[in-house]
Automatic annotation (TrEMBL):
Main location: membrane
Name of this chain's protein: Calcium channel flower
Keyword check for Transmembrane: yes
Subunit annotation: Homomultimer. Associates with the dally/ magu complex.
UniProt subcellular location: Cytoplasmic vesicle, Secretory vesicle, Synaptic vesicle membrane; Endosome; Presynaptic cell membrane
Keywords: Calcium, Calcium channel, Calcium transport, Cell projection, Cytoplasmic vesicle, Endocytosis, Endosome, Ion channel, Ion transport, Membrane, Transmembrane, Transmembrane helix, Transport
InterPro entries named among the record's database cross-references: TVP18/Ca-channel_flower
Record bears the keyword Calcium: yes
Membrane topology listed for this record: Multi-pass membrane protein
Residue ranges of the TM segments: 34-57, 69-90, 110-140
Recorded name of the encoding gene: LOC128202255
Length: 192
């Protein structure tokens, strides 16, 4: 058994059918899962450091630390439910999150990581902890965009647009207004 097969077996979800459902490369899928798992541990540990900010009477950093720890817990439940097997509903929640499209996970992770930045702005632990969750959201956002077209397809599309042979179907004037008139400047109004 090769090293990549062992790593794939360790990172695969229990009950997963190991069939690639989309055209996302394996390294990006497992990289997102690994960054989410490690980043959530980092966020939880560094969230504890933010909570210690109550010693300096910094309530905003206390709230940011609590939020960061909860965000880390949500990410670890979604990415590595084996770390929280002692909680009953974790597998159900993880399966529910896993069945969603990649852009939903990206929006969830980015949305969870932003409030600590605004609450405790000058803290390095906030940047590292919530930043790792934010980076996981960015990776899932890139996975949602999908695979890029081949170089031949992009060249033919660009050549057709240059030659005027094809108009993009998503042009605003194609669907917005059917009786559109060109904008022109008629000059300054005449005084009466």
């Amino acid at each position: 058994m090769s090293l990549t097969n062992k790593i794939s077996m360790l990172l695969s979800r229990p009950g997963d059918n190991n069939v690639q459902k989309d055209d996302v490369p394996w390294w990006m899928r497992y990289g997102g899962r690994a960054l989410g798992t490690v980043g959530s541990f980092i966020a939880i540990i560094l969230g504890l450091l933010n909570v210690a900010g109550i010693i300096l009477l910094d309530v905003k950093c206390l709230i940011a630390g609590i939020w960061q720890m909860l965000a880390g817990f949500v990410v670890i439940v979604a990415e590595a439910p084996c770390c929280c097997f002692f909680i009953d509903y974790v597998q159900t929640l993880s399966d529910n999150i896993e069945s969603r499209p990649y852009w939903n996970k990206a929006a969830l992770y980015i949305g969870l990581s932003l409030p600590p930045f605004f609450l405790c702005f000058f803290s390095v632990s906030t940047f590292l902890g919530s930043g790792s969750i934010f980076a996981t959201g960015i990776i899932y956002g890139m996975m949602a965009l999908g695979k890029k077209a081949s170089i031949e397809d992009m060249r033919t599309s660009a050549a057709n647009l240059e030659a005027g042979l094809g108009q993009p179907t998503t042009a605003p004037r194609a669907t917005l207004v059917t009786n559109e008139q060109p904008v022109s400047f008629t000059g300054a109004p005449l005084p009466h």
